[in-house]
Amino acid sequence: MLELKDLPDAHILKKFADRYPDADIDRVIQFLTFLRVATDLSNGLDRYLNAHALLQGRWWVLVLLMREDDACSSPSKLAEKAGVSRATMTGLIDGLQRDKLVSRMVSPKDRRQSLVKLTSKGQAKLDEVMPEYYRRVRQLMTALTDEEGDMLMQVLMKLNQQAQVFD
Amino acid sequence: MLELKDLPDAHILKKFADRYPDADIDRVIQFLTFLRVATDLSNGLDRYLNAHALLQGRWWVLVLLMREDDACSSPSKLAEKAGVSRATMTGLIDGLQRDKLVSRMVSPKDRRQSLVKLTSKGQAKLDEVMPEYYRRVRQLMTALTDEEGDMLMQVLMKLNQQAQVFD
DNA sequence: TGAAAATAATTAGGAAGCTAACTATAATCT
DNA sequence: AGATTATAGTTAGCTTCCTAATTATTTTCA
Fold this sequence. Notes:
- 2 copies of one chain form a homodimer.
- Chain A is 64% helix and 7% strand.
- By secondary structure, chain A is mainly alpha-helical.
- Chain A has 2 domains: 8-51; 56-150, Winged helix-like DNA-binding domain superfamily/Winged helix DNA-binding domain (Arc Repressor Mutant, subunit A), CATH 1.10.10.
- The first copy, chain A, has a 3-stranded antiparallel sheet with strand order 1-3-2.
- In chain A, helix 4 (75-82) crosses helix 5.
- The radius of gyration of chain A is 21 Å and the shape is elongated.
- Chains A and B meet through helix 1, helix 2, helix 3, helix 4 and helix 6 of A and helix 1, helix 2, helix 3, helix 4 and helix 6 of B.
- The structure holds a DNA duplex.
């Protein structure tokens, strides 16, 4: 997306502002910086997970399964909770099953449905990854004061309410 | 990643906190909410661009080219500015060239290098997409007060300085 | 009851991202 | 000058995401 270091200089900004008078430079920079910082943090998380032979999408499925009392869910529920399509969830579960971190069986109650279950190997993988993950998130977020943290949440909620502006 | 609507309830949080005592719930929620809102906004931008037969990666290459005085750059410079690998940039340029939005030629000065140039069709595509893009970004970001906008940038810079916590 | 509609999961095909390996060219350094 | 090293770009093979189409099963309702 955008490297923070090379935000456009005044000369370039003028060129864009002349051609596109609706541009609000400060707000565009806020928007792009927001996306860029989030992308960088997401990539950082991926690097950490990768060192444990996991990736963000698959890791999140394990976390969602651990949330369940019986460590069990269905692909469509997981897809909805993870915010991805059911087709994507099929692929994530395929990979996890290949690595034996989850098991898949047909639901006895509804033969259309699968039941995905966290295996003991999957739980062990979480136990390997989560403590250090939590320590690093704490380290990251304590860069913010409590007030900044609260403000950030408030701002995120406001932006979330505007999520349909692009539709 | 995480649906804002189904953040874990107290019962689940206790389960995780018991097993992983280093978890700092509030900060984890801040972190995950940040990634989720950014993902949703990025997907919104993609939906908008998609309606104009563009996608975020390709669109950004066009924007970077328009920033140049001669509408011209090389794949590796573009990759660095866009924050993607050179291999990814090759693919983005392939797609743009197929749609005749950019042209590619070998540099006469250094035969290893390519020169990528925004075509008039590419500029026309930007002129089609950018005004409405700027209006929507303005609409999105004016949900924040000026103070909130300033605070957001300050927070983003702080988080950016911590980008190496996952290494 | 039996046809139509809805639901769950998958497959197919494509985009955008990555690393690692490869080719071609240019620069450097004995 | 010639061998080595560095640089620019691409290719190959992988993951993660998407939409649209397909298959199997269940539900609905005429």
